[in-house]
UniProtKB/TrEMBL annotation:
<keyword id="KW-1133">Transmembrane helix</keyword>
<keyword id="KW-0812">Transmembrane</keyword>
<protein>
    <submittedName>
        <fullName>Uncharacterized protein LOC115740142</fullName>
    </submittedName>
</protein>
<feature type="region of interest" description="Disordered">
    <location>
        <begin position="71"/>
        <end position="96"/>
    </location>
</feature>
<keyword id="KW-0472">Membrane</keyword>
<feature type="transmembrane region" description="Helical">
    <location>
        <begin position="25"/>
        <end position="44"/>
    </location>
</feature>
Length: 96
């Protein structure tokens, strides 16, 4: 009877050890801490911040539609900026 739970605990430890790539001790713990920290700052935190920001914008827009103004940069005319081929942003000289 006592050996069955010991075998179960040993099997669980073996499974966890194999699932973590076979690393043992401090190296295993340190690698998981680094991986978890990177995952948090690269995926979890940005998505939470974006969601929170969207909720704040929605709350402001719902409370007073004239108070919230979405700020965007104006898009310039490509012909005036010389982005269309052949127009080198020349200014027309008045004919005399």
């Amino acid at each position: 009877m006592a050996s069955s739970w010991r075998r179960t605990v040993g099997n669980v430890r073996s499974f966890v050890s194999n699932a973590t790539g076979g690393l043992r001790g401090g190296a295993n713990l340190a690698s998981w801490v680094v991986a978890g920290t990177l995952a948090y700052f690269l995926w979890v935190k940005p998505s939470r911040d974006l969601k929170r920001e969207q909720e704040e914008r929605a709350a402001i827009a719902a409370s007073d539609p004239y108070k919230f103004v979405e700020r965007t940069r104006p898009i310039g005319d490509p012909q005036q900026n010389g982005l269309i081929y052949g127009n080198k942003n020349r200014t027309e000289k008045p004919k005399e």
